């Protein structure tokens, strides 16, 4: 069997259910693949792992992947199981925020690591400065939990529909205490959770073939997970070595994830790519990418896989 | 005995203080929850309370006091909450025969401990070698020592991911990358302590060997090494605690799949403060045990050397 | 390949030069004492440069010193701002607060044997709490700005200083204490005239260890939440963008600041404990 | 053997009164009896030398007098008080067996130490420091640090420190051990003069028989394990003692008696 | 003044030959001249005592002989070689001013230390340890650690350590300073016997004039700052010396000369 090491971009959770399902249900085995799934975390930059040869493929958000490309690490999107973005800002309703214009003078928690660019792009579109003050927003580098909102250190924080938002609700807050702004609705959504490999490797036909089989099996896993969310969540839970995940949370996450993968057969929609690029290029004074990337995606793998 | 009484007294004062501190720390969260549940809270509305003093809130809402010690996700968990969580993830697991399950701190503790011990061994070995070099070679002393200090001003958490990636790229995986980080943190105290120790013999003791025309080797084994033992153990105790921290830091960029670091991080992602605190305490208890173990070894070694006064 | 061989040669050359200097007749002069570590550092940097280029290590794994230098030059204002935020506001204030608190606590513990017995084990226990666990908690308590960083630093430096000071205050010889007894000196007289001076070498030990801890602590704490400025903030976000040259530029700042901080404390130590055998030579 | 020593003296004049003093050190390989059944009276203005083999308890007895050690049995009074009360009244000047100078103070400031503690004025401090430096022949060394002096000079500095303030009782533990005979003779003379002038009471430990005989009005011979007093010799020598008194028959006679006492102690082993 | 000392001797027999020796310590407040223009010849089998005020350079000269200190001027040969070559040939047994026992070795193992280093067999080591322990009257204390012994016993142990191996030249720096007169007398006798039996060459620093006269074939009187030799006295006493030789007129005569020499050195200050 061919060996494939997949670097996730976060800890084991239902966000990656498709891959765990494919592993657990033997879809990878059927394709004669021996897949190792490497969990990630806030200290792991998947492109770096890829560059160091620690993994063969990675999952990544496109802003980060394109940044790596510009820094001289030619990664290529070979499949895009996530159609829609799950990123949003969640605010306390009692702060009086009803629209992005009300952000002025507020404190907002943002994820960095490349995820800040859609936000900056959005703010520059709204004409709001991001260096604090009366007319701007004060930006905090938010850690990866929802404490800043619950402790009211921030008026709004970044959340994923499938994860952090659920955590806010879990802590007893009701939905009508909150206001949310989905990046998707604001027109600044970027592509999330794509599958990437190194350009140089893709020139090798054997590797290409391996990727074709990998993507095929992974998509099979995703579709299975969409159809059987509860079973998928259990599979994820079984694979969590940290013992930190809870059943209820993973069940809900799986349900939300299914909404994001729903529109995708795995193949990247060039229009989505162009929208992502233009969002990133509009990121204000210090953009993460400076020019339109060439060759950052390919359909060759998905085309082969899906036929 | 006297020590025990003193420690217990101090501990009980700290615990009492801790319970008291839970009141102001948790009151806002408790009041918000209570309000949601329909209780009468003064003043009403989380936004109104945001800028009020915590002590005033406690006084105005005395009914909420017990709840500050029983929150699900408190800002400061009460001691018994931490103790319960610790028990649930250790003793209770053993009773259920699931000592090595993923929800048991024994499992995570062992994962961390193994990396700690390996890293400690590497770091100590390296530290001692460096110290020997520094003491015997002027060049090493003059050129390496300042850079050893500089190396400690580098934030390890920033380097850790890179160390891991670089090690990955040369094919080193598994426990070793974590151990390398843990070694990086533990070698410094050992170098410093050991250099001090190897240099501790006074002029007369060195002169004595000179009159015997003892070789450098003999000087090392018969004078410098034995003289350095107390210093070595003092720095080993610091080193093993540093090793543990290193192993925990090293767990974060390896996917934090298992180990006390993973528990800390997991707790942090999901706002499980009780889990964070119990992992923290588990780490500190582990460190305390390791240090105590070293203390025992020290006692018996020094005693055998005749220095156990 | 040639570059790799060159790297080996440079290494040997640097070492040879240092051997000559360190064992030469000018070894005791100030200049040579400074020169030798500098040459060693330069050799390291050169070897690094040659290896990175020779083995064609990608930038996203390890940038070459020249890359780092140009990133450093291009981002001076940013680096300066980060330095102010993290070092001056976070580390320094935390250091001062932590060390003073530890010192006062040590005096209290010195006065009361009971407290010393009770607090030292507890203190050692608390000191073993790993910073990666305490930092998120303190960020949650003290907010995102430098206050939480200072709090992390306070926690980190408190116990090394405390333990060393307590040990130092007990370091007097029986004879020195007996002398004070025969004078019927009061506690504070014997404190200022005997215990404190005798403790200085130990106290400075703690203070020196704490300098590096303070800076590292402040940086690490920023990983768990910060405003959009600070060395830890920059490092963590730059890693995300794979701007490793910037990461290393910040590391250079950290190393410079840390070493200078350490050096400054060591200088003060030298002037105050000139009498100690370790300082006499 | 435990001879009842001749310690009957006019009680009114007694500065130190020890009765059946015992001192046992508990150590981890069993208790060590450092003093056993010690009886001794020291009168005002006495110069008492303690002599005996090493380890016999001389230092220990001096320490008990200065309240640096608690006896485990028996009684001791100093100036009619407990030693500790006397210590609080700053009755003692103590010269330790090793010099015990503080390394962070130079010689002059080491000598000033007790003066600072006892609240002497700055001018007075200066004056006294110069006086005692002169006395021990260290004028000009005030600015040096202890490690810059030879062992003998350090010992002299520590003597100067004990002489700088006006303690009634001067306790000296082998103060002249590290000095050569000439300096020693000189300091012996000076010490006698000081004693005659000030009427201090002096307790003095030495290993040198001639020194003990030359200086003392009373010589206490001790024997080891357990430390007991084997002989107390009252010296018939006059208070005025030129150095050549050491050739007088009385002197040689007393020295002989001390030597015999010492020898007896040794044969006990 | 700088008298030319009488050091002419049959050169073939000379063990130590010092010519115009100078030694200057550079310290941070200026150089200290510890030895100035020292000329001395020590012949095989000599017992040379060094006496002089504290700080006059006795220790320094002993250290120069043992190659522990480099002279800054002049010449010195030991057995016709440089001191350092002699050191490599393990020509020296050295007893330091303080005992310098290693605290992590018990007394027996402390004494074994040089034997181990010089590669004696285990059996030989045992034998010699027992012999020298006997000699310094510490039999039975071999298993004790240094801190379990009184200061005097420690000093005796360190003498035993220097005697345990066959060094030609024995250098002793105030070895008996901390001992009482009785033990001291006894050890003096033993040392003389050992010297007579083995024909070692001995350099001996002391502050005691009687000790110097009793032991030596040659007494070197030094004066301080800068350390110079002011007198070298060849002793006419026979090799066989009972303790009561100290009452003989010759003895008193020599002692007097030594005392005068010392006094002269002092008046220099
Ligand atoms: N702190 C202590 N703990 C245990 N034993 C002690 C202690 N101090 C002294 N001793 C023991 O008490 C005995 C008397 O000691 P002390 O110091 O009084 O002797 P000394 O007569 O002054 O001897 P030296 O002439 O060598 O100074 C010795 O056997 C010594 O080992
Ligand atoms: N390492 C050193 N550095 C500077 N000066 C020194 C050093 N060693 C000795 N001296 C000085 O050299 C002089 C001679 O010292 P030395 O130790 O030889 O005296 P000594 O005759 O042995 O005295 P003592 O009888 O007190 O032992 C002294 O003035 C001393 O201060
Ligand atoms: C280093 C790094 N950290 C976080 C993210 C963003 N991200 C990806 S998954 C996830 C968790 C959602 O619950 C988040 C925040 C990233 N791209 N890179
Ligand atoms: Mg004594
Ligand atoms: Mg000397």
From TrEMBL, chain B:
TM segment ranges: 107-135, 147-169, 231-256, 276-297
Gene3D superfamilies per UniProt: MetI-like
Keyword list, A-Z: Cell membrane, Membrane, Transmembrane, Transmembrane helix, Transport
Cellular location(s): Cell membrane
Every ABC transmembrane type-1 domain range: 105-298
Organism: Parasedimentitalea huanghaiensis
Top-level taxon of the source organism: Bacteria
Membrane topology: Multi-pass membrane protein
Coiled coil start-end: none
GO cellular component: plasma membrane
Designated name of the protein: ABC transporter permease subunit
Family statement drawn from the similarity comment of this UniProt entry: Belongs to the binding-protein-dependent transport system permease family.
The keyword Transmembrane helix belongs to this UniProt entry's keyword annotation: yes
One BP term from GO: transmembrane transport
Pfam (any one): BPD_transp_1
From TrEMBL, chain C:
Location relative to the cell: Cell membrane
Main location: membrane
Gene Ontology BP terms: transmembrane transport
Record protein name field: ABC transporter permease subunit
Family designation: Belongs to the binding-protein-dependent transport system permease family.
Listed InterPro entries: MetI-like (IPR000515), MetI-like_sf (IPR035906)
Alphabetical UniProt keywords: Cell membrane, Membrane, Transmembrane, Transmembrane helix, Transport
SUPFAM superfamilies, sorted: MetI-like (SSF161098)
Membrane topology term: Multi-pass membrane protein
Protein species of origin: Parasedimentitalea huanghaiensis
The keyword Transmembrane belongs to this UniProt entry's keyword annotation: yes
Transmembrane segments: 34-52, 92-110, 122-144, 150-169, 202-226, 246-268
CDD domains documented for this protein: TM_PBP2 (cd06261)
Domain ABC transmembrane type-1, residue spans: 84-269
Record has Transmembrane as a keyword: yes
UniProtKB/TrEMBL annotation, chains D, E:
One Pfam family it belongs to: ABC_tran
Family classification: Belongs to the ABC transporter superfamily.
The UniProt record lists the keyword Protein biosynthesis: no
Domain of life, per lineage: Bacteria
Keywords from the UniProt entry: ATP-binding, Nucleotide-binding, Transport
Gene3D superfamilies recorded: P-loop containing nucleotide triphosphate hydrolases
InterPro entries: AAA+_ATPase, ABC_transporter-like_ATP-bd, ABC_transporter-like_CS, ABC_transporter_ATP-bind, P-loop_NTPase
Domain ABC transporter: 18-245
Keyword Transport: yes
Protein name: ATP-binding cassette domain-containing protein
MF terms (GO), sorted A to Z: ATP binding; ATP hydrolysis activity
